[in-house]
Amino acid sequence: MSHAKPRRGEGRDILDHLSELIDEDSFLYLRALLGDLAVASVHPSSKFLIQRVLRAMDLRSARVVVEFGAADGVITRQILPAMHDGARLVAIERNAQLCRRLERLDDRRLVAVHGDVRRLGSILSGLGLSGADVIVSGVPFSLFRPRARHELLCLTSDLLRPGGRFVAYQMTTHLIPLLSDYFSKVETEFEVRNIPPLFVFKAFK
Question: Which residue has the higher pLDDT, 52 or 4?
Answer without folding.
Answer: 52
